[in-house]
Each structure stands twice: as C-alpha cells, then as structure tokens.
Fold this protein.
Amino acid sequence: MTENNQTQLGKTLWKIADELRGAMNADDFRDYMLSFLFLRYLSDNYEAAAKKELGKDYPVASATLSHRTEETLHGELLPGDPLPERSRRQHTQTTTPLSIWYEQNPDDIAEFEKQMRRKIHYVIEPQYLWNSISHLAKTQSKDLLRTLQQGFKYIENQSFESTFQGLFSEINLDSDKLGKNYEERNKKLCTIIQRIAEGINQFSTDIDVLGDAYEYLIGQFAAGSGKKAGEFYTPQRISDILSEIVILDSQDPAKGEKKKIERVLDFACGSGSLLLNVRKKMTGAGGTIGKIYGQEKNITTYNLARMNMLLHGVKDTEFEIHHGDTLLNDWDILNEMNPARKLEFDAVVANPPFSYRWEPTEAMGEDFRFKGYGLAPKSAADFSFLLHGFHFLSKEGTMAIILPHGVLFRGGSEERIRRKLLEDGNIDTVIGLPANLFFSTGIPVCILVLKKCKKFDDVLFINAVDHFEKGKRQNTLLPEHIDKIVNTYKGRKEETRYSRRVSMDEIGKNEFNLNISRYVSTSVDEEIIDLKEVNKKLAELDKEINKARDTHNKYLNELGLPPI
C-alpha cells in the first residue's frame, strides 16, 4: 500500500468519526473509535497466529451464517443478561474459520488457547473477534453492546501478561453519551462499528497501515481537544526533532546515528507517539532498539499508549508502560537504590505538562533525583520533571525535553538548579521554537538537550523562532525547518541570527541566564547612516532640481507662459 493510501485510511476513518460523534466531546468519542480500531488489529493478529498454529487443520470459512442464530441462542435473554455458560463458546453469528474449528474441536480448545497465550500472550474467542462484532453491527443485533462488554473483559482477564490488564477499563459502553438507554446505546454502537468496518474494508490493511491510521486519528482528535491535547499528544514535527537528536551519537553527533539504543524512556508518555517515533527513527537508520519504557498518570491515556504500542507491532515483551505519578516516582523499577542494579536509559525524551503546580514535601529534598539540586518551586514543576529524567540517563545517553521558556531565565530555586546543571557541564544545547506549535498552548517553547558526559565545553544555542509555516489556527514546522535544526545540532554549526556556540564564561557573566535572545538575536541590525554623505547627496539633488526648473521655465517663456 502506498503512503498516500495509508494516509487516506486515516482520513476516511476521521471523516466517519466527525460525522458520527455528533454533540459528543471529541475526547470521549476518541476512546471508542480507537478502541474499536485496536480490536480490529488484535483480531487480525490473533487469526493470523491461529492459522499458523493450527496449520492444515485451520478450516476454510463458509460464506453462510452459522445455524446457531441469534434467535435460537438468545431468544429468551433480555438486554444486559449474561450469556449462558453452556453456549458461550458457540455464540457466533457469522461463520469464521476459527469459529468452525471451535465447533468441530471442543475438546482441543483449552490446549489451543494455552498455546496462544504462550505465543502471543492473549486469547480472543471467535464470538469476540472483529468479524463477528462487525457482523452483529451490520445486522443491528440487540446483543452487540453486551457482546462487546464481555469481549473486552475476556481479553483483559484471559491474557497471559499484565499488558492487557485493564486495557479497556475506561471504555464506558453504558455511558449516557452513547444513548439514554440500552437500546439507544446499542443502536449507536451498531452504526459506529458498521461504518468503521465499511471504511477499513476499502483498504488492504496490514499492521503498518492500521498503526498509521491510529496515529493519524490521535493527531486529529488532539487538534479538536484544545488544551486537553497536551495531556496525550506531541505534534509530529516536534516529536521528529527530539527523536532525531537522541538517536545520534551522544559524544559527537556528527558521527551519525547510534547502532543500538538499549533502553528509551518517556516519563510523561501520553499516547506513546514520541516513544514510537524514536523507535521508527532508530530502525529507519538501520539501528536497533532494545526496550521501550513509558510512564503516564492519566489512566485513559495510559491505555491509549499500550494500544498504540501493540498496534505498531511492538511486542508486549518489548515495551513497559507504567500507570503512575512521575513526580512521586511510584514505579518500582525506578526505585532501585543499589547503583549496580539502577536502571539507566540511553535515550530520554519527554513533553511534560508545562509549569505544572505540585506539592513538594520536605522529605523530597532528600529524594535521590533532587538531592544536590534542590526542589523546583510549587508554581512550576518543570525542573522536577527534568531532574527525574536526567537521573536515569546513562553516561553515554542523550536527553531531549520540551519545556516553557521560563526555565531558561526564572530566578530563585530554578536559577540554582540551572546553574548546577551548567557548571557540571550537563546542558549541551538550547533550541528555541516558534510560538503556537501546540494544540494546548500558544506560547513558544524550547528544547533542552542534556548529557552526563559531553564532549564540548560550550553550549549551543539555536534560535529557530522565525522558521515556520504560518497557519490560520496553528503554526507548523516543515521538513526543511526540522532538517535545519537537526543538522545545526549535528555539526554544532554557527550561523548569524540562527545559532551560536557560547562559552561558559559568557554564560557565567550573564548570571547563568539562558534566555536565547541574549546569545542569538534574530533582529536585523539597523543600517548606519552617514549624515555627511546624505547632506552631500541632497545638495546634488537640489542642483539637479534647479537646473531642471530653469530649463522648464525657458520652454514656458518661449510659449508666452508665466514661469513656475
């Protein structure tokens, strides 16, 4: 499938979402839409694995419906009633290869599912597969909502690994936002799923296509979420800058990309898009990435991140996303006190909430992340997030973090933290970006690049504030703007009104203020005017004017007209 068609699938699904959500908040509808797309992926992946596992025993699907129709199976059930245990496994309204095998091999099901848990770590029974669900939607079955609820719970509870636990916990199919009662909600879900199925069926989908469509939808929903978008989404172009920087050789970026990154961390990972971009850039450059680690406080966004990883083909053994509070550091694997067993990361990226208000305790002053630096003020936890990520950065690693400009010049405790990081040689590069790049805020932001062992004893400043494409509601970075930033960082290039390497002596004389315009001004110097030269030119012009007037009056005199 071409890249254009991959984008087209995302646009098709977005159009469906835009038409169907009605008065529903974009954030709420996002969760339904993305969960159903994820179910489609899980089903496709499961059926492919089942076909491989069963080999020649995998049946060829019949085009006819199963004789166990909805009426004979559920004729006496009321909406919301659980399915009888005896018929739970046989509950299927459309005959698929796997449902045929289940009906023909009831004694082998337990062993088959055991193998599936071992190999792909989850199980979906035939009646919960996407094709069965979409058939219920197409036939306007009254059991769709109930079957979806049971299917989501089954996937969560019958999976081998914790990756799937609570994955659909925030998908409220009983929400009044879908309808006032069961019948209305069921009807709405039938419409949504039928339209999604029709949209997807226009395309030949594989994992890359579904993953790209998922990513496209996240971006579109972010655009419609306003300030809430900052909780789960980093604009793709800004994500590209961070990703391309952290995969370069940390000591000398001019050497190019690393061959391998063992571990990468985003401690405010949102929907996981930034982590996935690092992985994409790394593998695209011919390198490999070991394991992805992310942390997210919002449970809905945490679930989105896990779905996003799986949808992009990241195996559940290749990533670990933690639901918790980064500032409290409640992730057990990051609380190892033994230096020999401390978890470190070769790449750390983050787009934490800007100037987040927090409540630091006195005990936090002794926290291993902040000790020696001091605590960030209650009014802005920016440096707390930075120090958290920096603590876990390996000696050969690179950290790139998006922050508001205030961290560059604010005084008090922030000035003390900034000064220590500078004196210890940990701040490598400061990049100023244009305003209005984010959905959630119009303020200009900066990217700080940090290292524990850096080669250069100066700080590179890049002032890219004037390099963007202006939009009606939001500004955008074009590929050439990103390339310019990354290439300037890579070669540590200096360019008038754009970039400059600044010595620590000069920064010290400025009291460790990192305000970018102090070091790289984008203003054009006014031309120096030579007043003597100007007077000389004015005198010459007067002579020419007088000469022209005399000639003109001569002609007027010949015509018998008065002079001027």
Notes: Residues 530-564 form one domain. Strands lie at 260-266, 288-296, 319-323, 345-350, 393-404, 427-432, 445-450, 458-463, 499-503. Residues 63-93 have pLDDT under 50 and may be disordered.
